[in-house]
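INSTRUCTION: Work out how this chain folds

Token vocabulary: learned, describes local backbone geometry

RECORD BEGINS BELOW THIS LINE
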Amino acid sequence: IAIGGISMGGYGAYEIARQRPDVFCAIGGHSAANWLVAGDSASGAFDDAEDFDRHAVVGLAQARGSAPWGQAKLWLDGGDEDPFLLADQAFAEALGIPFRNAPGGHDGDYWDGRYDEYLRFYASALKRC
């Protein structure tokens, strides 16, 4: 099974997959909505700072690398004008994977130009499984 998503869905894919690492063989975050500290997160995204800490995938990766995601093949990408760029780059670095950066923002124009690349990633990972 592969899981992935755009924006908050990209964050959610990593959060769900860390809870069941034995289930997923591929995880993708496309302009994933990640934050480095609770105070930077969007209003309502987390209940409070403690909730943020319990679900902070970037912090988890910084502490444990890619281990919480088992043997899954991992993907992160984002545009060079994406507001989540710094957090996603830090996440990729902590995971030990490349961050695929390209021109663009946090919008449909960026994602629409990359669906072929995303589907090739998932197809390759699923074939391996």
User: Anything to note?
Assistant: Helices lie at 8-19, 49-55, 57-64, 85-95, 108-112, 115-128. The beta strands are 2-6, 26-30, 73-79, 100-102. The first strand starts at residue 2 and ends at 6.
